[in-house]
Amino acid sequence: EYSCEYGSLKFYALCGVGGVLSCGLTHTAVVPLDLVKCRMQVDPQKYKSIFNGFSVTVKEDGVRGLAKGWAPTFIGYSMQGLCKFGFYEVFKILYGNMLGEENAYLWRTSLYLAASASAEFFADIALAPMEAAKVRIQTQPGYANTLRQAVPKMFGEEGIWA
């Protein structure tokens, strides 16, 4: 009667896939807006407003320039969503089992907050490398145009902690 058993590996995998789809796809869809926002933060004299930022970007890089950073955005936010949605369920069950059924019910709001915070900790770690590459691609002219160019350059300049 259910698609999978609650707490099974299939359950966690489906939660993770839901996170990949909801975070990876949605963040990738708004890459042009994010690109202009990041450029406005880095160079407010050049990118004076959202509309001006779009105009300047299209003039300098063409319409394709609005997609700069799409690959690290998709990969990074997919990994973040996978961890956020998947680990939330893992931690919710883990902490609930530690508290016992009655206490888990009585303290459910705190349990959900603790599970969410724990999942977000790992989700942000999964996102960070791709976010670092994305920001360099989008805001440092001439640094790199693609993820394939950015990663080796970052590694060569700063090592594994880049």
Automatic annotation (TrEMBL):
Membrane topology: Multi-pass membrane protein
Reaction(s) catalysed by this chain's protein: phosphate(in) + H(+)(in) = phosphate(out) + H(+)(out)
GO CC annotation terms, alphabetical: mitochondrial inner membrane
Broad class of the protein's primary localization: mitochondrion
Quaternary state and interactors: Interacts with PPIF; the interaction is impaired by CsA.
Protein name: Solute carrier family 25 member 3
GO biological process: mitochondrial phosphate ion transmembrane transport
Subcellular location: Mitochondrion inner membrane
Function: Inorganic ion transporter that transports phosphate or copper ions across the mitochondrial inner membrane into the matrix compartment. Mediates proton-coupled symport of phosphate ions necessary for mitochondrial oxidative phosphorylation of ADP to ATP. Transports copper ions probably in the form of anionic copper(I) complexes to maintain mitochondrial matrix copper pool and to supply copper for cytochrome C oxidase complex assembly. May also play a role in regulation of the mitochondrial permeability transition pore (mPTP).
PROSITE patterns: SOLCAR
Domain of life: Eukaryota
GO molecular function: phosphate transmembrane transporter activity
Keywords: Membrane, Mitochondrion, Mitochondrion inner membrane, Repeat, Transmembrane, Transmembrane helix, Transport
Any Pfam family matching the protein: Mito_carr
Placement of Solcar repeats on the sequence: 10-94, 107-162
Family designation: Belongs to the mitochondrial carrier (TC 2.A.29) family.
